[in-house]
Amino acid sequence: MQTLQAANISLSAGSVDEGKRRYVVRTEGEFTAPEEVEQVVLYSQLDPQTGRMARVTVADVATVEFGYKEPGARIRRLSKPAMAINTVRETGANVIETMRGGSRRCSRAERNRPAPASLNPDPGV
User: Fold this and answer.
1) What is the DSSP string of 28-90?
2) What is the pLDDT of residues 74-83, one digit of tens each?
């Protein structure tokens, strides 16, 4: 389990200052498809006689499929099922720009949503 968690991580790697600008650096290693999970090497060992590397991958020991975890809670808005997304700004980031960025992302997601879902940002929540 630790091997899978280490392979599926996205975290801040610090920042780089360049003149008046500051760039936040992130390491991206998130799984986007079941095949990526299947390719994770769980164990490897060198055969001293042949010099070949023996590897055990997730696909060797498990079946990987796309799914979801049953929700532990239900969220509703105006008596309809809803989804909540938490937005967290980086330290020192402009709150107004962060909210505008979140609204732009919701608008883009709304244009690409499958029917009959709808996205309605509610900044009051």
Assistant:
1) E----SHHHHHT-EEEEEE-TTT-PEEEEEHHHH-------PPPSS--EETTEE-------PP
2) 888 888 888 7
What Rg value do the Cα atoms of the chain yield, rounded?
Answer: 21
pTM of the entire predicted model: 0.41
Amino acid at 84: A
| Tokens at 57, concatenated | 């991958």
Residue with tokens 């799914």: 67
Contact between 8 and 29 (Cβ < 8 Å): yes
Q: b or e along 14-41 (b: 16 or more beta carbons within 10 Å of the residue's beta carbon)?
A: eeeeeeeeeeeeeeeeebeeeeebeebe
What are the backbone angles phi and psi of residue 60, rounded to the nearest 5°? -70, -25
The pLDDT tens digits of the residues spanning 25-73 come to 766 677 788 898 888 888 888 888 888 888 899 899 999 888 878 878 8
Cross-strand partners of 28? 10
Listed in sequence order, the residues at least 6 apart from 70 whose beta carbon sits closer than 8 Å to its beta carbon are none
